[in-house]
Design goal:
The chain has 415 residues and is an alpha/beta fold. It has a single domain (22-410), classed as 4-Layer Sandwich (Purple Acid Phosphatase, chain A, domain 2). The chain contains six helices and 21 strands. It has helices spanning 37-44, 168-174, 190-203, 242-253, 290-299, 383-395; strands spanning 22-23, 73-74, 95-105, 133-138, 178-180, 207-209, 216-220, 223-231, 237-238, 258-264, 281-282, 285-286, 304-308, 316-319, 322-325, 330-333, 346-355, 360-370, 376-378, 402-403, 408-410. The strands form four sheets. Strands 3, 4, 5, 6, 16, 17, 18, 19, 20 and 21 form a ten-stranded mixed sheet that branches. Strands 7, 8, 9, 10, 13, 14 and 15 form a seven-stranded mixed sheet that branches. Strand 20 (402-403) and strand 21 form a beta hairpin. Its EC number is 3.1.-.-. InterPro entries: Capsule_synth_CapA (IPR019079), CW_Biosynth-Accessory (IPR052169), Metallo-depent_PP-like (IPR029052).
């Protein structure tokens, strides 16, 4: 399924660099220089051989991707609200809601784009995309053809995705506020496509994260939230180098009240719903050790870990009182970009409420499913919820999250 391996350079720093903490254009504040050059240097020192993993050809005639076939900006997310008193009459501890989805592909230009220019693509799930900070894993560049597509002129058994830059407006109207670029498709159209994606998101008031050393800080109702993206590819913070990852989290913890990790990890395929200790490999690629990585970043100060990458839902675990969602599965695969058969078509929306100290207040999981053409919708059968409940119990009998029949999430006793 993959094109020959080739080396890919890390994104260079732009004048309006994505790397580092940045302030919103709406505030008029000046963007600061990159944080922690040592992090980018450490990641750049890694020898990462990049295979053209899991991407579509964009020609309209190529095969549909079948996973497992083998072949910061500081911005206000809302006004601060006064604490409401609890039953005792004392002010309740302030909390905020963080909402997230798994992989998002709106379509594949030029010939596999949804009808009506993508208008209404997310209408069936907009009600679930609510929260004080709404995040998604953007599994494609938003760019015109840069001439640097990773599949080259003969894209057989290679998959690359892109959507028009203006389609960032659909993400904004759906409710998304921050998109992660740390995944295997972030560089499908090279460095220029990567930077074009950042510009497209910014033009529509959306934040992004995932570049080496990038920590995106968002002010959410007076609580500062730092978000950093990780993957096994050189255009992101490293999932493989645990020590470097911990350094990024330590830096983020010094900049914000809460730290959220977006991480693209784990092998792909319909049979990959279970999480086991150890490194996961996929077609020769090191896709990280999900449990070791997640525990390490929480040890370093992370408050929530949001996983994606296997293209199937995985279990949820509490570690030191912090929630780890090992994979939120496929959320959208417009233009038949993602296989929607069976559990490959199941995803979900995770909503977690945390206090400024990182204490878990509550959470819920809403099942979604892709149509045959990859459009997301609420799954009234709750198949995703059933799967997450099953694998959470099986893989983490002591520490697994408890989900009831409505999707409400609670920690296990002692979790």
């Amino acid at each position: 399924m993959y094109a020959p391996a080739r080396s890919v350079p890390r994104p260079r720093r732009r004048r309006s660099a994505a790397i580092g903490v940045r302030r919103s254009a709406a505030t008029g504040a000046r963007r600061s220089p990159a944080i922690g050059t040592r992090f980018a240097a450490a990641i750049g020192a890694l020898l990462v051989v990049v295979l053209a993993a899991g991407c579509g050809d964009g020609s309209g005639d190529g095969p549909i991707w079948q996973p497992g076939q083998g072949g910061g900006s500081t911005a206000s997310a809302g006004p601060a609200e006064a604490d409401q008193p609890d039953a005792s009459g004392e002010p309740a501890e302030k909390s905020i809601s963080l909402t997230a989805t798994g992989d998002v592909i709106m379509g594949n230009a030029p010939s596999r784009l949804p009808a009506n220019g993508g208008k209404g693509f997310f209408d069936d799930v907009k009600a679930a995309l609510k929260g004080d900070l709404v995040m998604g894993n953007l599994e494609e560049p938003l760019t015109d053809d840069t001439g640097a597509g990773k599949c080259g002129p003969q894209p057989k058994n290679c998959y690359q995705f892109r959507a028009p830059p203006g389609w960032a407006a659909h993400l904004r109207s759906a409710g998304f506020q921050l998109l992660n670029q740390a995944n295997n498709h972030g560089y499908d159209y090279g460095q220029q496509g990567y930077e074009n994606t950042q510009s497209a998101l910014e033009a529509h008031g959306l934040k992004h994260t995932g570049a080496p050393g990038e920590i995106t800080v968002v002010d959410v109702k007076g609580i500062k939230v730092a978000v950093a993206g990780f993957s096994s590819y050189p255009w992101s913070n490293s999932l493989i180098d645990i020590d470097a990852a911990k350094q990024v989290i330590t830096m983020a913890k010094g900049m914000a009240d809460l730290v959220v990790v977006q991480v693209h990890m784990g092998a792909e395929g319909a049979d990959r719903s279970h999480v086991k200790p150890g490194t996961e490999m996929y077609v020769g690629e090191n896709r990280g050790d999900p449990i070791r990585f997640s525990h390490a970043v929480i040890d370093a100060g992370a408050d929530l870990v949001i996983g994606h990458g296997p293209h199937v839902l995985r279990g949820m675990e509490f570690y030191k009182g912090r929630l780890i969602a090992y994979s939120l599965g496929n959320f959208a695969g417009g233009g038949k970009s993602l296989n929607s058969s069976g559990r490959l078509g199941w995803g979900g929306v995770l909503k977690v409420s945390l206090t400024a100290e990182g204490r878990f207040v509550g959470g819920e999981f809403t099942s979604t499913a892709m149509s045959s053409v990859g459009r997301p919708a609420i799954d009234r059968q709750d198949r995703g919820l059933g799967l997450v409940r099953e694998v959470s119990r099986a893989d983490f009998p002591q520490s697994g999250a408890r989900l009831d029949g409505t999707g409400k999430i609670s920690a296990p006793a002692g979790g």
